[in-house]
Amino acid sequence: MSKKFLRFRDLQARGIVNNWQTLKRWIRDQGFPEGVKLGPNTRAWPEDEVNAWLDGRPVAPSQPKAGSTVEPKSKADPRQIDREEAIAAKAEATEATATNTNGGE
Predict the structure, then answer these.
(1) What is the DSSP string of 70-101?
(2) Rounded-to-integer distance, Cα 47 and Cα 33, Å
(3) Per-residue confidence at 85, pLDDT binned at 50, 70, 90?
């Protein structure tokens, strides 16, 4: 059985890495496989080694843990709330004025 290799463009296409600088830093600092040189200007990475590295990476939780409370990042702008209240009050006043001028219909 032959081993499948991934070229840099394959890593990009899979959304693993965007640029060479990041890839070099991952190889140097985070244990990404060094890959093998297939020619003087050609490097490739065994797919199984890349998948093993990805499987060993921590995954951010998609939801807060059960029982934890998450505060909203920002509260509503009080000026926006005041503006909405003013618009509602103006609409009520306009409606009341229209009712009075139409003889209470």
Answers:
(1) ---SSPPPHHHHHHHHHHHHHHHHHHHHHHHH
(2) 10
(3) confident
Domain count, the chain: 1
Whether residue 79 lies inside any domain: the answer is no
Enclosing domain of residue 42: 5-55
Strand partners, 74: none
**Residue 76 within any structural domain of the chain:** no
- Scan for tokens 């394959």, then name that residue: 10
Mean pLDDT of 24-51: 94
Residue 53: pLDDT over 90:
yes
Residue 52 in 3-state DSSP?
helix
Is the pLDDT at 9 greater than 80, yes or no?
yes
CA–CA gap between residue 99 and residue 77 (Å, rounded): 34
More confident residue, 6 or 75: 6
Q: Nearest-CA neighbor of 76 among 67, 85, 88, 68?
A: 85
pLDDT of amino acid 40: 93
Helix (H, G, I), strand (E, B) or coil at 45: strand
